């Protein structure tokens, strides 16, 4: 009797009649037919069970393999090792399937993983994969190719390797138009027909996760090591490379050169053309520096407008200067920014070193010190670090540390110098001038420490202490009933204080605590500080004026004030700089030791005239002779201040000034 499974005869049921006399009866045949049918069903169920078990085994193996791949991704394991495990998992599903993974790098497609692919077919498979990925950025459907021997060498090589079909599965684009690679499945003639599409989809999904995770880690690592604006290496990377270069000099000889570059007057460009233009300039400078250096040299951005460069194999100082000349020449051409041509100059510091005993940080500090020396000499130049600079840098650091301690210990003292009516000799007020009671060097004038304090921002807490002390003394000098308005007190504000967001609230609080009439207090702001950011300065001045304070522009004539802005500032007076006053008692045309000429009188006359035209008071500082007093009166200046009227003195001596001075 035939045994059938789903209509197909898979065997026979043979029954022997032991007697063999009369044959099988009809009823017996029916029983045998039923038995063969039951046997066929049993065989079918057995086949199904075996298939289900086999499929379940494959599914469990695939699931376990996926878990191992995802675990590597989560742990940040290397990409190639993860992709290799992925290929092995795929190949374990079917002995006739070969899996490869291709990645696109710099426009080239390379097979990075091919565990079981026949080596003779690798070139052909890479060529086929690159052709399949070409122009498929938006199409993720697999490309199916049936290789043929024919005239196609690639097809012939694949056929000889036993490949009957290739499926190229593109990975998800990582950016518009950029496909990072593909999973490539090769089916040989021994491959089973086991849902190849599902296997390919699983492989692609895992590869997408692995590749995107690796790229995300690479991006984070790049961002951690590079400046986001210029994409140049940052400080930490630069220091590491300097250390490596110093170590290498023990083998190669020569020296390591570190350059520290600072763009001169970058703030002017930023303020006049805007921060977007400033950022564009920094990017353009970075690009030009890239083109100026030699292969193997390193450029980094330290922040702001500061760049550093590392050059290896430097023979001597002359070689270093030659490289500096190339950089300066590169930056000499104008930059096009916001529709304007902008010329940029740099201050460059150079420091040479060799051997691992030289610390990279010290080399950088040396280059930085040399750069500041170049900037002190007017910029647009370079300086090579020497021992004298090292000593200046050490003294500078010591002074900075001492300033911190002085602020904490309140070591600053306030002296007061009178301001006098040039017409009557009446003392109108005093200007608060800071001195530093240094524990070992004695009383230091502001010229010894204020420049560094302004550069480091320490001038803000120093200025706050001076303001508090001056207002406390002003309260002590408060006149009695019917005694007149009393002397006024002037306090200087630095550019850093003007730009500090807490200035107005701090002044308001100090005024409230002191109880002083605000009209007796004058704040002096230098012309250059106001013009650093005219919009912000105007807002700050208006807020201070609303407190009832008087405002004076200090050192007027030394900066580049715009008269348009000046008339908008709510100021009460202009203070003529001492450098112009000092030339008033010289014979016409004579030059003084400090550079004064007969042109000084013309400048003083112009400043006084400007003040009067704006309904402001003109104040002359640095008055030291009777001739200067007489000439200032002739020019119409109302108020004077200087050694002729009195030297700065401590608060307990100021009471002596409340009188009329014989001018």
Our measurement of the CA-to-CA distance between the termini, rounded to an integer number of angstroms, reads: 144 Å
| Radius of gyration (Å) | 43 Å
Largest sheet data: 8 strands, mixed, barrel
Question: What average pLDDT do the residues reach?
Answer: 84
How helical, in percent, are the residues?
Answer: 40-55%
Q: List low-pLDDT spans.
A: 589-596
> How many domains, in number, for the residues?
5
Structural class: alpha/beta
Tell me the total number of β-strands: 23
Strand content: 15-25%
CATH architecture of the largest domain: Alpha-Beta Barrel
Oligomer: single chain
CATH-assigned homologous superfamily of the largest domain: EAL domain
Number of helices: 22
Q: What is the fold-level CATH name, i.e. the topology of the largest domain?
A: TIM Barrel
Q: Main sheet: which strands, in order across? A: 15-16-18-19-20-21-22-23
CATH class of the largest domain: Alpha Beta
Q: What spatial form do the alpha-carbon principal axes imply?
A: elongated
Structure, described:
The protein is α/β, with parallel strands linked by helices. It folds into five domains: 61 residues, no CATH class; 147 residues, Beta-Lactamase (2-Layer Sandwich); 151 residues, Reverse transcriptase/Diguanylate cyclase domain (Alpha-Beta Plaits, 2-Layer Sandwich); 170 residues, EAL domain (TIM Barrel); 71 residues, no CATH class. Strand 22, helix 21 and strand 23 form a beta-alpha-beta unit. Helix 7 packs across helix 8 and helix 8 crosses helix 9. The longest helix has 49 residues.
